[in-house]
Amino acid sequence: MSIGVRFLVALLLCSSAAATAQGAAEPKVERGRAGAEDHKDKMKEQAEAGWAIPPVEEQEARSKGRVTVGGRSLGYTATAGTLTVRDIEGKPTASMFYTAYTLDGTKPGTRRPITFFYNGGPGSPTFWLHMGSFAPVRLKTTNPEFIKPAPYDFGPNGETLLDKTDMVFLDAIGAGYSRPLGDAKPEAFYGVDEDADVFAKAILRYVTKNGRWNSPKFLFGESYGTLRSGALAYQLQDRGMALNGVVLLSSIMNYGYRQPGLDQLYLNYLPSFAATAWYHRKLPNPPADVATAVAQARAFAVGPYAAALAKGQTISPAEEDAIAEQMSQLIGLSPAFIKQANLRVDLARFQKELLRDRRQTIGRFDSRYTGIDPDAAGERPETDASSDAISGAFIATFHDYVTHTLGYKTEMPYRLSAREAAGWTWNWQHKAPGRGFGAQNNPNTALDLGAAMRANPYLKVLSLNGYYDMATPFFGTENDLGHMMLERSQQGNLSFRYYPAGHMTYVNPEALHQMKVDLAGWYDEAVEAASSPVPPQAPSLSAGEPGQGPN
């Protein structure tokens, strides 16, 4: 396994099979004075043994910075530190590492917006969003090629969102510098609902500690972080924190359709295949732009293709030939190959087959990137070229920055994935809100987000998507968010944006700039909506419905 794939393993979409139970239970620690003394003794023993242990007392390392945004110089305070998460009785259970950026002059009680960022995995720390997207500093990236080895181009970020919001980047428990405390067991944090719960507690702690209850509040999740956002938006609202907005970047909110034997996944991928084939000039009759290629694939996917797949093995030879020919025109593979795959082309096969005549593979996180395998005859790529191209630069830049600029000191290693931790097993069960749902073995937190939006008519949701993201295809996002069953009066709170980029859209400098423009306007609308005396209404049908294409 290549170094890039290993370091990005936390971003890979996991198998949707339910996780098995953890091993044998540990002895229960008694509550009260005796339990506290046992806990102190255990921590003391670890310290004396030379272990690097997470702090129970919250840590802070503050530094000053300045960045120019739109010709305006902004001074800010960067705080790298920890939040201590406690159970209902006040016992510390986890230490969550964060980095916050606040505009100078911001005081407790301010009405200035604040946004909480996190990556996905599950089990990924948040140095990807931190180092690459909207913080006041950023690793400068090129498009799309391997980032040259050190020294790296890292510095002030003119596309930062600091002019619109303060920002807090949070690391999941077990990842980065975030750790369980004392006798807390891994299964208390490693699961869909458990993960959302600890993030909710950490956010509530930060807001209370820093006097931000009166600030407009936003969530910004990437990849599995969008699934977290669905559950988290509902959990926070259920605990008294109504959000102003949720940003979903490269979404995967429904793991249900990733089960073997279901055809929805092939429908979801088809427009992404079309965009990729268009980019690499593999279409026999290419349209003028990628948006048109995508629109044609969307129409085919929800029409003839969906009808054909629904027939399974009973499809007639004539219809199979016709569908394969139409697919070939849209995604650049031969009709014969498509028919050999029973009209169902797996992602790995597409990555290997599209540029096989050039002896190249295409990336998963970003299909604009190309790689070379030892041979061109294989079934699937041996590595992800888009992962290999950026991982080393992001990892090295973060380590240098957090130590030498932010000044955060610890003996603990920065884990690139919580999966490196002992006892890692993810509990995929999820209890969705509402009657009759029960526990889901393959979570769909779009249901949670829909419930939060129905309860809070001011909650805005913005879906950001890369045309060349093959890890979380945008058509799947449209399907998930299009089935929240919002009323017409609520659908205007949901909007979509599309960029010529991959999973980590911010790697593309041009896409990053347009994202900043789109987000700046969206933040203004979301904050203004909360000041309106009546909830916003949906646009007229002539303006276009969410999820039907770029808007």
TrEMBL record:
Entry keyword set: Signal
Domain of life according to the entry: Bacteria
Position of the signal peptide: 1-21
Disordered: annotated segments: 529-551
SUPFAM superfamilies in the cross-refs: alpha/beta-Hydrolases
Name the record gives this protein: Peptidase S10
